[in-house]
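Propose amino acids for all 156 sites.
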C-alpha cells in the first residue's frame, strides 16, 4: 500500500482533534482530579495526555488503513461508522467524568466505549488485520481506565 501522506495526516488529526475538543469542553478540572482518592496502580497525571496522544495517533492510522484498503466501499463505511461511534463515546467520557463528576455514569460510558472498540476491531479485522491490531493498545487502556474510573467512584 503506497502511503497517501495527506490522507494519513488527516486521519490522525481527526481523533487528535476529538481528544483536544473533549479536553477543551472538560475545562481546567485536573486540580480537583488530583485531590481524589485513587485506586492502586493509578499512574501519575502527566502520563494520561502522553498515552492518549499515542492512542489517538494509532486510531487515526488504523482508520487510514481501512480507508485505503481494497475492501468494498459498503464494508469500509460500516467499519468507519463503528469507528465514529467509539470516537463519540470517547469524546463524551471526559466531560462526564471530569467536568460533571458523574463517575458512575462515566463508568457505564466506558463500558459502552469498550464494546464499541471491540466491535470496531472485529470489523476492522475483516478488512485489515493490522488496522485491528493498531487498536489493541486502545482497548487495553480503556480496560485500565474503567478500573480507575470505578475505583475512583467507589473511593470518593
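Proposal:
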Amino acid at each position: 500500500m503506497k502511503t497517501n501522506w495527506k490522507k494519513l495526516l488527516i486521519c490522525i488529526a481527526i481523533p487528535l482533534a476529538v481528544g483536544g475538543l473533549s479536553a477543551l469542553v472538560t475545562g481546567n478540572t485536573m486540580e480537583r482530579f488530583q485531590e481524589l482518592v485513587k485506586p492502586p496502580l493509578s499512574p501519575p497525571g502527566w502520563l494520561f495526555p502522553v498515552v492518549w496522544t499515542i492512542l489517538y495517533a494509532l486510531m487515526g492510522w488504523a482508520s487510514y488503513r481501512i480507508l485505503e484498503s481494497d475492501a468494498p466501499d459498503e464494508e469500509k463505511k460500516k467499519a468507519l461508522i463503528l469507528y465514529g461511534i467509539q470516537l463519540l463515546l470517547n469524546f463524551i467520557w471526559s466531560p462526564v467524568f471530569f467536568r460533571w463528576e458523574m463517575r458512575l455514569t462515566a463508568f457505564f460510558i466506558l463500558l459502552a466505549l469498550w464494546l464499541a472498540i471491540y466491535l470496531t476491531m472485529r470489523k476492522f479485522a475483516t478488512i485489515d488485520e493490522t488496522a485491528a491490531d493498531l487498536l489493541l493498545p486502545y482497548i487495553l487502556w480503556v480496560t485500565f481506565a474503567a478500573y480507575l474510573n470505578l475505583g475512583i467512584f467507589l473511593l470518593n
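The domain at 5-28+44-155 is CATH 1.20.1260 (Ferritin). The chain has a mean pLDDT of 96.
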